[in-house]
Amino acid sequence: MSQQYPGGIITKNAVVPSGPYQDSSASGVWTLDQASQYVKAGNWPTFGNANPNLFIENLFSTWLYTGNGTSQTITNGIDLSTNGGLVWMKARSTAADHALYDTARGTTRDLASNTTTAQTTQATGLTAFTTSGFTIGSLAKINLNATTFAAWTFREQPKFFDIVTWTGNGANRTIPHNLGSVPGCIIVKRTSSAASWTVYHRSLANTQFLALDSTLAAITDTTVWNSTTPTSTEFSVGTSSNVNANTFTYVAYIFAHNAGGFGLSGTDNVISCGTFTTDGSGNATVTLGYEPQWAMLKVRSTTGNWLLKDNMRGTPVGVSGPVFYPNLSDAEANFQTFSPSATGFSIGGLEGSATYIYIAIRRGPMKVPTSGTSVFKPFTYDNSAGGFAQTQNAGFPTDFAFETDRALSSHHYFVSRLQGPRAQMSTANTGDESMFNAGVDQQKFDLQNLFAQQNSVSSSVLLYCLRRAPGFFDVVCYTGTGANRTISHNLAAVPELIIVKGRNIVAPWEVYCDALANTQYLVLNTTAAVATGATRWNSTTPTSSVFSLGTSTQLNTNGSTYVAYLFATAPGVSKVGSYTGTGTTQVINCGFTAGSRFVMIKRTNTTGDWYVWDSARGIVAGNDPYLLLNSTAAEVTSTDYIDTASTGFEISSTAPAAINANGSSFIFLAIA
User: Fold this and answer.
1) Residues 525-571 pLDDT 10s
2) Is the dihedral of CA 47, 50, 51, 56 positive or negative?
3) How many domains does the chain have?
4) What is the CA radius of gyration of the chain?
5) Torsion angle of alpha carbons 468, 469, 473, 478, nearest 10°?
6) Which of 32, 266, 357, 514 could be 496's S-S partner, Cβ–Cβ 3.0 to 4.6 Å?
7) Global pTM?
8) Structural domain boundaries enclosing 8
């Protein structure tokens, strides 16, 4: 196998001459060691892009925090001091002006998207841009004590985002930029005196603009953009005082549109600037080619507020979620449904039969995880005092949580970000999704009295936090049609284990596993052996982009809503597999180096429980507590059915037939 690279041909396992190498299809440089990784894999460059600049998680962040009234450092992993960028902050729980700071104008220089006010100097505002985020002072609108806030960070990067400043001259002119592609949207603000925020969008004519601080529909004015469409190197401004008054200063935030240049292939899009028209009921579906994590929208055909949505504050599928209005100082509201999918989003609650513009940013991470600790964290905690002490931080944004009482007869609950922070489902029964009256920190998924019925009495709680990541784990919400179909996903690998549950109907938990035929299924809430039903998966094996459904009412009733949890084998991180029982000790090799921190086992050829172990409670040489997902029984602590093994886990000689019957078939999921 060989692949062209700048300077010659690379063959598998070839010796790489000294680098670095410039990728001709993307912006970034690879070192010799990084280039060697591609050669060793024999798969240049799709094996994995070693340049961190080319993944959205290194360029954009939504960060939620609580003000302390003094100062604090936000560590979101975005390098602003080296590369430059924009930080946009807004109070969630109280009314306050928006706050925009950027590296081009410098620290303490504050702008508010909801006002025409000139730039102000706030000594206690944003005080530093760092290599991993930023630092803020005591300024009330960004750090009022006990107030909740959101911060969006945009790092400068060709084909994603750029910042430009200039001094006006009052004459038609061009402004150079470094976006490296034709801008999809440009937001301009006069900084030296009061003026409206002026917005160019590719879906408007080059004689039109919108105002970020206003509800006005698109306005026609040929003096703003000089009736000239931007290019990949410059944009034009006319004589309008909003963009080019003589001696006045300006800043422009420039957003790309479907410019490619990102991801493992170096060709993926991470930002789109488009348009859609709602139906008479105010609904629309938009195809992006990816799942968004952030979107800003504005009706252009009539008056209406700007809308800002993001998945950290919550974009639950099918129900209304938090929204900010960039043109208003209002606290966070709860309005409009914004339902992400693997290929775009659906939205409702808008103006009927109206045309909207949007900016959308792709959800991350785009990199395949290389360690289990970056995507999975098990916790145990003592809650005997009632209420949840907010000390549990997974170290990553959690997209899925499993919570249960260890010591009491209790349900085991699944919760996911896409379903919404108050939606729970018990693995031990067929009931529909229930809502609980509790709060949740969407940044860390820290539970705040999350499951009141357990947290009020329990002294022994178990919590798993998982992050969606390519090759490891994905969550998909969908609505049934009753007809054979495919469902798109973002696992970026062929799913090996799929667990599906009806959200608004009473239905069993149906399970697909690649160790079984694509006509077979298991049921998570029962001990049943494998069953055959061609209408479950439509007798079709999943692919790296879709999984198939048949006409089964358990998985695809017309109009009913469902959630699917998808797992794959990520080398060194997770393993979906199967084994044959021996009745004696055997090691299950998962390809790990430090053993399993989570193990789930199910016997398939006959009845058997769904066993679960984890390192938080103990996977050791002695007794290992286990829970049964199909049961509400308390955990069992007096058995030694599995043991540690560096490559995965060991089935001990004391394991019963339900885990190691000689000649029987078993499936498992293990996470390092």
Assistant:
1) 999 999 999 999 999 999 999 999 999 999 999 999 999 999 999 99
2) positive
3) 7
4) 26
5) 60
6) 514
7) 0.90
8) 2-50
